[in-house]
Amino acid sequence: MEWSGPKIVRRKSRQIKVGNVLIGADAPISVQSMTCTDTLDTKATLEQIKRLTDAGADLVRVSVPTMEAAAAFKTICAQASCPIIADIHFDYRIAIEAAKNGAAALRINPGNIGSKEKVAAVCQAAKDHGLPIRVGVNSGSLDADIIQKFGSPTPEGMVMAALRAADILESHNFTDYAFSVKASELNLCVASYEALAAQTDAPLHLGITEAGGLTAGTVLSSIGISWLLKQGIGDTLRVSLAADPVEEVKVGFAILKSMHLRTRGIDVVACPTCARQGIDVVNTVRQLEENLSDVQDNLKVAVMGCIVNGPGEALHADIAVCGGGKGKCLVYENGKIQGKIDAKDVLTVLENRIRSRISGNDIKNLRIL
Ligand code: SF4
Fold it and tell me: Is the beta carbon of 305 within 6 A of some atom in ligand 1?
């Protein structure tokens, strides 16, 4: 058994249910994303939702900016491959319409919904349809009096905004809510979640907002989210990237997998390559990840360029290949050497051994030399 450090002890949060997905308490930490298509274009939005769920998304959020979009939202919810969360700002009537039209949850900021009567109407609609609400506090849209009090967005101000919103919901006897306190400044974001986690047992949706493009956003999100997860904080997450949202799901799962909080699909260990490599590691890994993106079973696969570190990694992998020199490649299963193959066949053999292992059927014509 590979040493993987102390187990993370999760914060004791209460549980909510978004469609068929449980969030909080001991439920698996769910991965969310958000569509970036025009909600009125239901075909494109449904296609994107499908790509997101194929990548593993448990939940998808869709913006509903107008009443017209709320009508399109009905079609989307009816045909979507996972529960859909309606993202609503400003207009309480849209929130009510989205609740009627099949939303699995509402993401609102009670502060920008308006009068008590309007918030009460949204709470009633959520209750009528059994929907939880996520209170989404964002450092970029804190209430003016909070900014005035603290001078700029601070963890105290973020927590005040969240608890103030919860007070509004609770004044309408609505307790089925979760929080997020997102900021693009990493330390502010993490400190806000830490402070809020100490003051509520509501589930927390993690995310570093407006984190940037694929590389910068992945780094920022990975640092912030893992920092919180390591403390047991976080019940669901969204990695926000200015990129194809499928990347958000991939990065979200990569974070959870690296912290041993969830498993999904193939975990590939690969060396960074150098002049010693006896197989094409980079292209093998790229192609393998692409070809096996449908696989949900968890297997650890090592793709190693040569025998310097290959046999060591192979010991801890379900299946491993290791460049063996002279155009050959060693194949391992469960740490034991199975034989040699031609280096040019490495992708085919690996893919078939993995599928064979998952299906339990030995695929013919794949005998190792
Ligand atoms: S395993 Fe071999 S090929 Fe890969 S980086 Fe290490 S020395 Fe280089």
Answer: yes
